[in-house]
């Protein structure tokens, strides 16, 4: 009995996923556990393992296709079985998106559906609108496919009413919404650069999302950065103790960054304007701290969220941040965990950065950059002394918060970290 | 047009009579007894043996064709066999005095001539030389097959006879072990080491080729004579007359320098078997009565013409002996009417419906093999038993070689299945040979002192200088570029010759050769008669004999006059010889305008269609010099198109200008003349400049950037650049001045459709000239593609342009209608 494989729904906010690579091709033998295809949301990449064994009878989407979740992607079954009944293309094209609900259970396609689809007029590659055959150049057709636009919506301006490339380009320009994020719109700009020794690298989905988000952040907010530092002697001693004696308690893996996260979670609620979303007309000020933690991955920057951080112990924060980071690295992070943050912490200290200007993750109003520890000089009663200073760079949205309140947060945070063991005891 | 020869009206207008000398007809009357002093018994018997070998060879083929077997061995030979049974005495008599330095060219009916010439040459060659020839030929491949199969194991002559018989027979049977790898076959077999040059399946085809070979011998001071063996019916072919008149040009005796003065060393020998297939020449299809008469019409020497009795080998030997002397005295050319008769049909399908049995019987009564044998017996030279023994040996010889040559293991056909490129690899020789001989080239002055060279030195080698157009008189032009490449080569390759109409003194009709007259003696640059067939045909002969030649036809439209020479000869001989022959021939033709329907055609498509020709059409001075250099460095025939519209154009594309030194533009590589993103325009020849004008307007008026590519070469052609461009732009317009229907560009467009289909935003569109006659200059802009047309056809068929109003219709309807009407 042939079974269809659907595009899984990866998180409630995900409406469609892009097939990034097929690992099997039509006609291949498939075992349970074999990877059928990898797919990606705008934030993460996943592998779809087969839960069935048999022959991959048909593939309904190609690489780079954007597939609505819960849609049949392929069919596994025995040789000779007809996979076409499961084809999402066989059904008349749904004119509105609202039909999505009805196609949620395609794997249960009942037998009568088979007859219906056979009796229905064939919808083949030749698409017709008002009895007029669509004529389209091969190049325009390919561009439409790559850009993910529906060429039937293009206004033909070619000879004899043929849709030509410029018509698809117009379609893309006029209705950017029609273009999915996979669009590879060929730039019409001439390559004028004399630099010819380069490789063209297509940005990944995630890169594109980051690019868009970063640019949007800088373009639409009024962000600025405050730099400060604190005496890290206390947390360094504490970290040393955890490392040497913590194994027995399972806390030997707690890092300085975890300690900063904990301190932030315990400081933020005294400065709620920085634990907030600024939405222009209104501002959501949160009573719990959902801490975004920036993670560097091979795919690019990802920011998973430690929910309710203000209610979690140092141990829990540490454990969760490691799990999230690992999932991000592996590309298996649940997309729902990549949203919902109220404040973000990003750490470049391990890379010897002394100070930087983190970019806000809107609509959040603040982001804290953690820098390296450098020795600083201060005067004491014994004269001049050296102490380990850890830098903190707070970027905040001046639309939401003024400088002094932001500085006050930074000051309190520094004090909390200088007296971390006391904070922990509270 | 030599100025030193004054045409005196008082002389030429004088009243007088043309007087003719008597033309000898069968004047040889000696008996065997009288010839005994001149021939030994061996000589007499060898003549008989050679005739017997030919007779048995042809009889064997006749039996295979008609009964499917010879002496109990079955074989089916589907190919041709034009036999010469009855003509043996004429072949053996002709070959008797010839050695390997003497060349014969033949016809479709030349098995006998091959064997006779081969037997004669191998008799004269030293054993050591013979062994070397056999060892060297195909690395001894044929020798390995036949060696050790002789009665007398140490007898090199016997070995060589088997070599000759086997190589010829294997060639006839299309075996890879044949003399030409089976690619020539019965009508084309030859073996140059014995002085046997290509036989030709086109009637009279050998006349002008042999004349070119004689030119090669004369110009390069090579020993030996050349004989064109053609049939009586070929006297009806224009190129044969052209060849004879060109061979008899006065200038050989009046204008050529002392060391090259005198007539061409060639015999136009008509093996006159009195039939052209089924047409009786004397009495039905011709009017000469006796063929030898024609000699009287060619030159005052009457071509030393005579009729010889080709049924008597001694009569033919006598004639060749006397005619060889004529040629050695530089009094050629010679015409021989060697009368003979073929007992066999034209071909095995010949039902002899055109002649009676009585006629054939009457000639068989005088069968040379019988008559000559009986004469020898009667004169006491030999006894019947000796002839019987010769026959017995001959049959064994033929039988042995026949069996060897049809054995698929020993003598396989070309393995095209497992070596699919085996024939394509032979279409071009693709060699680079700087000079075809090592001696100092004959020139009249140092190159630097040449007035044209000095003039060119003063010219600006770009079209623009400091952003301003260079005045025409100071600008290095297209014609200078062609000249420069040719001039340079004349000082490198001593074999290089150039000829055609108006090449000397006038400097070529379009002044390309101006300056060459001062530089070169007559024998390297001369005016030919208005004989396009003979111009190209002789170039073929000159080239395959080992020289390099530039022939010129003035107008491309005159190609038709040289149709056979271009389509069947120039293009074919490299491959038909299995690469043994090279064809370093450049044929310059120009595409005209202004002069109407017979002087304005771009016929690149005609030659592009013929396998075996390279075809180029440069449109810039840089490309012209570079392509001419490549053509003159190569060993392949190149049809070199030039456009008269742009002889005076300067170099606009290469900012450095045209280099003074040597460089090559590789044949087969198109060139991007302007880069663009929106549309590709591929042009051939002078159309380039109209395409650029259209491209300017497209950009100015519609913001469309066209990439303009100049094909430069038509055959071969590397599509890479064009495909890359089309993949970028998605659109291509192809244009040339050739008439649209059958234009080679349709072929290019089809290839692009197949190779870049998924990238196309519109079908490739070809813009050619109308399918009309070329009208007068004043109306030409209605005929040849104009910049307007480019924009109109782009608008209508590729990319509608906003606000554009067409002036010329290129609609579907128009296209269908035009085709319906055949216009």
Structural class of chain A: alpha+beta
- What would CATH call the class of the largest domain in chain B? Alpha Beta
Judging from the principal axes of the Cα atoms, what is the shape of chain A? elongated
Total beta strands of chain B: 24
Q: What's the CATH C level of the largest domain in chain A?
A: Alpha Beta
User: Which protein chains are joined by the largest interface, and how many residues does each one contribute?
Assistant: A-B, 15 and 15 residues
CATH topology name of the largest domain in chain B, in short, is Rossmann fold
CATH architecture of the largest domain in chain A, by name, is 2-Layer Sandwich
CATH architecture of the largest domain in chain B: 3-Layer(aba) Sandwich
User: What is the name of the CATH topology of the largest domain in chain A?
Assistant: Chloramphenicol Acetyltransferase
CATH superfamily of the largest domain in chain B: Thiamin diphosphate (ThDP)-binding fold, Pyr/PP domains
Low-confidence stretches of chain B: none
Radius of gyration of CA atoms of chain A, rounded to a whole number: 27 Å
Q: Which sequence of strands runs across the widest sheet of chain B?
A: 14-13-15-16-18-17-22
Order of strands, main sheet of chain A, comes to 13-22-21-20-16-19
Domain count of chain A: the total is 3
Poorly predicted regions of chain A are: 93-131, 180-194
**Morphology call of chain B:** globular
């Amino acid at each position: 009995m042939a079974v269809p494989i659907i595009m899984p729904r990866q998180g409630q906010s995900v409406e469609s996923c892009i097939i990034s690579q097929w690992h099997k091709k039509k006609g291949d033998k498939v075992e349970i556990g074999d990877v059928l295809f990898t797919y990606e949301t705008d934030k993460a990449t996943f592998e779809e393992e087969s839960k069935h064994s048999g022959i991959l009878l048909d593939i309904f989407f190609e690489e780079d296709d954007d597939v609505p979740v819960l849609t049949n992607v392929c069919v596994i079954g025995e040789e000779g079985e007809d996979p076409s009944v499961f084809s999402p293309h066989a059904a008349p094209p749904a004119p509105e998106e609202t039909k999505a609900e009805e196609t949620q259970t395609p794997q249960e396609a009942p037998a009568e559906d088979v007859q219906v689809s056979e009796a229905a007029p064939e919808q083949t590659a030749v698409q017709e609108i008002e009895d007029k055959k669509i004529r389209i150049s091969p190049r325009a057709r390919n561009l439409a496919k790559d850009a993910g636009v529906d060429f039937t919506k293009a206004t033909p301006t070619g000879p004899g009413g043929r849709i030509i490339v410029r018509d698809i380009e117009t379609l893309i320009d006029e209705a950017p919404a029609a273009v999915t994020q996979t669009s590879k719109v060929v730039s019409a700009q001439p390559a004028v650069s004399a630099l010819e020794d380069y490789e063209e690298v297509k940005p990944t989905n995630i890169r594109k999302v980051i690019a868009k988000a970063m640019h949007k952040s800088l373009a639409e907010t009024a962000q600025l950065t405050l730099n400060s530092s604190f005496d890290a002697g206390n947390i360094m001693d504490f970290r040393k103790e955890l490392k040497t004696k913590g194994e027995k308690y399972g806390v030997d893996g707690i890092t300085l960054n975890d300690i900063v996260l904990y301190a932030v979670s315990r400081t933020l609620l005294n400065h709620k304007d920085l634990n907030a979303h600024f939405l222009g007309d209104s501002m959501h000020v949160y009573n719990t701290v959902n801490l975004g933690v920036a993670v560097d991955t091979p795919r690019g920057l990802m920011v998973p969220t430690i929910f309710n951080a203000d209610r979690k112990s140092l141990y829990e924060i540490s454990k969760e941040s490691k799990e999230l980071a690992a999932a991000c690295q592996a590309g298996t992070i649940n997309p729902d965990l990549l949203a919902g943050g109220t404040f973000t912490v990003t750490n470049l200290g391990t890379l010897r950065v002394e100070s930087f200007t983190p970019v806000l993750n809107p609509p959040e109003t603040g982001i804290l950059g953690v820098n390296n520890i450098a020795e600083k000089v201060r005067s004491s009663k014994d004269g001049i002394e050296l102490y380990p200073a850890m830098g903190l760079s707070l970027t905040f949205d001046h639309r939401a918060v003024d400088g002094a309140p932001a500085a006050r947060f930074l000051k309190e945070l520094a004090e909390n970290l200088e007296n971390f063991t006391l904070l922990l005891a509270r | 047009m030599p100025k030193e020869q004054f045409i005196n009206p008082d002389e030429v207008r004088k009243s007088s009579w043309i007087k003719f000398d008597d033309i000898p007809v069968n004047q040889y009357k000696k008996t065997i007894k009288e010839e005994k002093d001149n021939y030994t018994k061996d000589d007499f018997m060898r003549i008989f043996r050679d005739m017997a070998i030919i007779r048995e060879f042809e009889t064997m083929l006749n039996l295979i064709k008609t009964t499917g077997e010879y002496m109990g061995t079955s074989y089916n030979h589907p190919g041709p066999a034009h036999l010469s049974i009855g003509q043996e005495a004429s072949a053996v008599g002709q070959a008797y005095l010839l050695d390997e330095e003497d060349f014969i060219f033949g016809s479709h009916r030349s098995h006998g001539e091959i064997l006779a010439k081969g037997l004669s040459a191998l008799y004269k060659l030293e054993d050591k030389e013979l062994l070397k020839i056999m060892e060297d030929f195909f690395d001894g491949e044929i020798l390995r097959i036949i060696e050790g199969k002789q009665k007398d194991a140490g007898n090199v002559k016997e070995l060589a006879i088997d070599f000759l018989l086997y190589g010829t027979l294997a060639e006839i049977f299309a075996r890879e072990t044949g003399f030409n790898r089976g690619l020539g076959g019965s009508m084309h077999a030859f073996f140059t080491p014995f002085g046997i040059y290509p036989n030709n399946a086109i009637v009279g085809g050998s006349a002008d080729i042999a004349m070119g070979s004689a030119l090669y011998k004369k110009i390069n001071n090579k020993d030996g004579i050349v004989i064109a063996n053609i049939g009586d019916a070929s006297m009806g072919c224009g190129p044969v007359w052209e060849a004879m008149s060109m061979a008899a040009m006065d200038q050989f005796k009046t204008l050529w320098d002392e060391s090259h003065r005198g007539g061409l060393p060639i015999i136009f020998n008509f093996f006159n078997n009195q039939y052209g297939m089924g047409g009786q020449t004397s009495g039905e299809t011709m009017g000469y009565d006796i063929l030898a008469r024609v000699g009287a019409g060619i030159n005052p020497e009457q071509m030393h013409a005579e009729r010889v009795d080709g049924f008597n080998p001694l009569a033919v030997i006598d004639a060749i002996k006397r005619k060889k002397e004529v040629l050695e005295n530089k009094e050629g050319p010679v015409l021989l009417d060697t009368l003979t008769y073929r007992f066999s049909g034209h071909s095995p399908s010949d039902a002899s419906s055109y002649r009676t049995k009585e006629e054939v019987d009457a000639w068989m009564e005088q069968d040379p093999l019988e008559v000559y044998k009986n004469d020898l017996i009667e004169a006491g030279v030999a006894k019947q038993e000796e002839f019987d023994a010769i026959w017995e040996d001959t049959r064994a010889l033929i039988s042995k070689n026949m069996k060897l040559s049809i054995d698929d293991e020993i003598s396989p056909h070309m393995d095209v299945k497992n070596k699919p490129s085996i024939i394509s690899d032979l279409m071009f020789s693709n060699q680079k040979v700087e000079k075809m001989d090592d001696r100092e080239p004959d020139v009249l002055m140092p190159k630097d002192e040449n007035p044209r060279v000095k003039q060119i030195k003063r010219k600006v080698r770009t079209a623009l200088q400091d952003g301003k157009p260079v005045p025409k008189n100071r600008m290095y032009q297209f014609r200078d570029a062609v000249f420069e490449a040719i001039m340079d080569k004349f000082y490198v390759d001593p074999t290089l010759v150039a000829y055609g109409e108006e090449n000397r003194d006038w400097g070529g009709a379009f002044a390309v050769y101006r300056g060459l007259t001062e530089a070169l003696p007559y024998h390297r640059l001369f005016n030919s008669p208005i004989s396009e067939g003979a111009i190209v045909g002789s170039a073929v002969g000159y080239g395959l004999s080992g020289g390099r030649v530039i022939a010129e036809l003035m107008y491309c439209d005159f190609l038709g006059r040289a149709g056979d020479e271009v389509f069947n000869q120039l293009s074919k001989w490299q491959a038909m010889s299995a690469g043994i022959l090279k064809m370093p021939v450049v044929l310059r033709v120009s595409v005209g305008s202004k002069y109407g329907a017979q002087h304005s055609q771009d016929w690149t498509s005609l030659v592009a269609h013929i396998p075996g020709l390279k075809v180029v059409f440069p449109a810039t001075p840089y490309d012209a010099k570079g392509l001419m250099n490549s053509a003159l460095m190569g060993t392949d025939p190149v049809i070199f198109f030039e456009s008269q519209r742009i002889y005076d154009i300067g170099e606009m594309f290469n900012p450095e200008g045209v280099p003074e030194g040597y460089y090559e533009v590789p044949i087969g590589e198109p060139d991007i003349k302007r880069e663009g993103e929106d549309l590709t325009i591929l042009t051939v020849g002078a159309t380039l400049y109209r395409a650029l004008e259209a491209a300017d307007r497209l950009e100015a008026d519609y913001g469309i950037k066209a990439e303009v590519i100049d094909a430069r070469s038509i055959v071969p052609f590397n599509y890479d650049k064009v495909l890359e461009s089309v993949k970028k732009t998605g659109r291509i317009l192809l244009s040339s001045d050739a008439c649209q229907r059958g234009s080679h560009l349709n072929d290019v467009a089809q290839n692009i459709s197949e190779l870049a289909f998924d990238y196309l935003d519109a079908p490739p569109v070809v813009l050619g000239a109308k399918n009309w006659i070329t009208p007068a200059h004043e109306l030409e802009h209605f005929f040849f593609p104009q910049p307007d047309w480019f924009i109109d056809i782009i608008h209508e068929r590729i990319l509608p342009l906003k606000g554009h109003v067409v002036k010329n219709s290129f609609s579907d309807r128009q296209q269908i209608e035009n085709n319906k009407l055949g216009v």
